[in-house]
Amino acid sequence: MILRELSILNYKNIRETTLCFSDKLNCFVGLNGQGKTNLLDAIYYLSFTKSAYNTIDSQNITHDADLAFIQGKYTFQHQSTNEFEVISCGIKRGLKKQFRRGKKEYHRLIDHIGLIPLVMVSPRDSELISEGSDERRKFMDGVISQYNRSYLEHITQYNALLKQRNALLKQFEDRPLDAPTDLFEVVEMQMVDHATYIFEQRTDFIQRFIPAFQEVYTVISGDNEQVTLEYTSQMQNRDLMESFARTRQRDLTIGWTTQGIHKDELDMQLNNYPLKRVGSQGQQKSFLLAMKLGQSIFLGKPILLLDDIFDKLDSERVKRIIQLVSSNRFGQIFITDTDRQHLTSIIQASPENSSIYYVENGYFST
User: Which of 202, 268, 280, 336 is most buried, with most CB under 10 Å away?
Assistant: First the structure.
């Protein structure tokens, strides 16, 4: 998909704007806090029905306004620019948001995910390394959900059943001998069905994703380092239904479920050592960029949002990244930076198919 035009009203510090975009490079220059990231977040919102930074919708509305509105006009690759797919969202304080494709409102927001594939690279990606395994599972789930709509349904159902089992554990933690085995087994059998599908899809994804990830890292690093990803799951070496039964008494004691795919991990390694332990800031940043840019290649040219990606990188790695994202391996790109020089270098690689905006206090100018 190509985003041809974006209209925003009262979204964060962007009062009102309508911007038209190039189908390749769209650059935004400005100081920190001026609205560059908010623009990218509005584009993200139209793909995922939520903000990348604040999931409380009312807090994304400009402070003294009652409502916000975002609308994007899209075309498929090589489609006539006169044939638009219009996606819009209205947010009003105290009311349920309205998310529409054309004139038809979605009854379930989950049905929209995957229509407009998108990858966002931002400073917050550092949480993939610094935070717990939940962040790395979100990475896997986010990619898979964009090309496999059934997967998100399985994740949703599994999480609902996990919540139900944890509620049962809490209910009987003071009297574990009274816990109804048959009721637990009904919930657990359903969890196993969904967990099996999720495990198979995660395994398949990582096996197919690693080559794209390693290819990008090789380019960024100048082929000086070796990296890998390893997906680990309890389901690789045990029967989950038996695990639920074996650990049920312990789970009743502590009040939560210790077995299942919600414990899966994605191990990141640099030169056969844990990245978090041995990687410099530049190497960790390169690793994250390789994951996200590899994701873009894997998904087949989704919209790519690059927010302040050059920080903590030496000049050689910056040069290689600029060459990489300027290539035809990627589709439509939106990139922000405080340094015009970086963006000028990217534009020079494709001057006839690019645009640049200057951003100040929520206003955009060419």
Answer: 336
